[in-house]
Structure formats: structure tokens, C-alpha cells
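Why do we care about 3D structure at all? Because function follows from shape, and shape follows, mostly, from sequence. That is the central idea of this module. The next example makes it concrete: a single protein chain, its amino acid sequence, and then its structure expressed as C-alpha cells.
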Amino acid sequence: MRKSVVFIIFLSLFLNQNIFSQKINIEEDQVSIEYVKGREASLFNPSNVYTRSKDAKTIVTRVKMKNLNNKKELFDPNKFSLIIENEKVRLRPVDILFKNFTDWWHFSKVSKTKPSDKKSYHKYNPDIKDTYLDYNKEGIKNFELPINLGTRKKPEEHILYFVPKKLRSRGIRMYFILPENISNGTLYYGNTKIKELEF
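And the structure:
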């Protein structure tokens, strides 16, 4: 009986230590990022960005953000990136969502160039800074996947980035599209390494 109790206590302490060790405080932004999980995305997911290529796959990664001051502050999702060390490339997420009660909501996107369709959902707003470009890595090439805002007959490709939003503590889900043969990468928030991933 005593052995089982000791084992349960040990297991509980071990799990608590591992969960705690995954939470990273980023002092410059006064936010903590806790890695939850990452995997290849299924066909049934809430992202509205996808690829038809057989040579590419979509990876979904989940984290939890929390402001250290426990107040609603602007959270900038443009600081997330995935670095593929073997290929020396840095990827921007193609879509990022946040948990709102029981549903997932998209961070609004803006285009780096003006879409020809003035009614396009993705607006052009140069006043919103693209901070993804503030965290370039020496010897690593930024790769930004253009998104088609037109049709298959009349494609119109644009680089999109995200509008920061006031949040206190939310689950964050982000999507990356990468070649099928890539099996690992490292998730970053700004200059801070969050997690080495295998997929």
C-alpha cells in the first residue's frame, strides 16, 4: 500500500515539474507562453488556409499565452515563427486563432499590398506594424507563403500578417505549411525559443 502511495506522489511531482518547465516567461513583453502540443493538421480543423499540394503538409501548434500582470494587453501574434534548422529557413504562420470560450476565433489579417478588390476581407493597413520582420536570424532566410485572395481562375497572391488583439489569457492555435519531407523545427516567439517540435 505504501509503495503505491509513494509512486503516485512521485508521479504527481514529476508531471507537475514537466508542466511547469514548459511555461516560458518573456519579460520584454510581460507575457508567458506555455507549449501545449503540435501535430499534423487533420482535414477537419478551423483554419481557413490550406494547401492542395501533395508535397506539402499543414502543422498545427497549440500554446497558451498569459499576461504576467493579469490584465488585458495587446498580444502580437506576428512574433511567432517556426525555424527549420536543416533548411536554414524561418516560416511565418499562415493562420492563427485564439480560444474564445468553446470556439476558436481568427486573428484578423491585413495585407502587405492593396488587394484589387476593395471589398476584400483582408484590408491594407500600413499603420499596423509587421513585427515578424524584427526578429530575423543570421544565416536563416525568412520564407513568407503568399495567400491567394482571388480565385483559381484569377489568382491574386498576397503576404498577410496579423492584427494584435487585447487578451489576458487564451489558448492560441497556429498553422504552418511546410514541405512533406520536413519532420522537425523549432517554435519561437520573437527571439525566445519555445519548443523543439517533431512532426
